[in-house]
Structure formats: structure tokens, C-alpha cells
Design brief:
Layout: E1 8-12, H1 22-32, E2 36-39, H2 45-60, E3 67-70, H3 73-79, E4 83-86, H4 93-100, E5 105-110, H5 113-118, E6 126-129, H6 146-157, E7 161-163, H7 172-177, E8 182-185, H8 195-207
Parallel strand pairs: 1-2, 1-8, 2-3, 3-4, 4-5, 5-6, 6-7, 7-8
Helix pairs in contact: 1-2, 1-8, 2-3
Length: 210
């Protein structure tokens, strides 16, 4: 399995990346300190994901930052992504592992205690826990869990974890205080006038905790 750092996890949103494309946003965010990037586009279809994914893989090649594809394993395989992130209603993580092999990263969304207790650390490398807050970037999300819920699920899952759901720079301290290994952000970087500066501000907030 490839090594990875969840601390500043960028989730790309094509609707927000209008002034700066997803590739431009990604490279600016990496320059600002993003440690891992997820390509998420529910409207693009597999071919669309492959097209943008190949652009991202080429642009990111020299950075060492992993690219994770959300949900679409065919796209992840076609572009040679570093891993796949799946939700509870997506491809089962066991099947994803069988197809991707041991050297790829697999992340799993965790929304409640029942799911957290069932996570298999022999299959899943990290968990995405949330939503911490309600967020317009994923309108079909489950009820918000807050920071107390985040702390509970971090302990139960017992795997490297990244918090997600309406999170901004000012949430860095409570996210890490809850025991998460990283903070996942969307609109805090995507769609910002200066995505590199926005990322650096979050990265500096994380660094101040260490």
C-alpha cells in the first residue's frame, strides 16, 4: 500500500471549480499544503472522470500527493489513480480491494456507529467520518454528527480517519481535538479566489497544533 497523509484532504467539486479549473485548483492546493486529493464528480460519468483524472494524474505526477477517485472503480483503474473512496451505497470495499490489489488506498465513508463497528482494517486503509455539519456540496448526506459524534466514531472505527462535512479553517482545532487524522474540505478551497492561499491558511492552522 502507498503511504498517505490525511491531514489536509481536498475533495474536488466541479461546480465550484469554475474560476479555477479542477487541475488549477488541485495544483494550487498542493502548493499550499494539500496532502491528498479526491476526484469527486457525480455528474461526469466514467468517461468524464477518466478524462479529467488523466489530466490530474499527469499534473500531479511529480508532487507525490495521492489522487483518490470517489466511487467509480472503472475510472480509478483506467487513470491509474492511487486509490478509491467508497460510500455505504457504493461498491463493497471487499470487492474494491480484490480488483485494486494491495498497493492501492481504499477509503470508506462512515456515518454511524453500526457501520463503524463493521469496518475491516484488513481491507480499508482509512475512513471518512461525517458529515460533521450539513453541507450543500452533498445534499443527500446523512444527519450531521457534530464534533462529539466525530470523536465517538473515530474511537470505534480505530483506523486512520478524516473528518468531512461543511468544514473550514476554523474547524481545524476541534477536528484534530476529536482524534481525527485529517480534515477534508471542499468549498474552503474549491471556488476560493486564491485557492493556494486558502489552502496554506488551513495547512498553517494544522501545523500550529503539532
Amino acid at each position: 500500500m502507498k503511504s498517505f497523509d490525511l491531514s489536509l484532504y481536498l475533495v474536488l467539486d466541479p461546480d465550484l471549480c469554475r474560476t479555477h479549473s479542477m487541475v488549477e485548483t488541485t495544483m494550487a492546493a498542493i502548493a499550499g499544503g494539500a496532502t491528498i486529493v479526491q476526484l469527486r464528480d457525480k455528474k461526469a460519468g466514467t468517461e468524464g472522470l477518466i478524462r479529467i483524472g488523466r489530466e490530474l494524474i499527469e499534473a500531479m505526477a511529480a508532487t507525490g500527493v495521492p489522487l483518490i477517485v470517489n466511487d467509480d472503480i472503472e475510472a480509478a483503474i483506467a487513470i491509474g489513480a492511487d486509490g478509491l473512496h467508497v460510500g455505504q451505497d457504493d461498491l463493497p470495499s471487499q470487492m474494491a480491494r480484490e480488483r485494486l490489489g494491495r498497493d492501492k488506498i481504499i477509503g470508506l465513508s462512515i456515518e454511524d456507529e453500526t457501520v463503524a463497528r463493521k469496518v475491516d482494517p484488513g481491507i480499508v486503509d482509512y475512513v471518512g467520518i461525517g458529515p460533521v455539519f450539513a453541507t450543500s456540496t452533498k445534499p443527500d448526506h446523512k444527519p450531521a454528527i457534530g464534533f462529539d459524534g466525530l470523536a465517538d466514531l473515530v474511537k470505534i472505527a480505530g483506523l486512520p480517519s478524516v473528518a468531512i462535512g461543511g468544514l473550514k479553517k476554523n474547524h481545524v482545532e476541534p477536528v484534530f481535538g476529536a482524534g481525527a487524522n485529517g480534515i477534508a474540505v471542499v468549498s474552503a478551497i474549491c471556488g476560493q479566489p486564491d485557492p493556494e492561499g486558502a489552502t496554506r491558511a488551513i495547512a498553517d492552522a494544522i501545523a500550529a497544533l503539532k
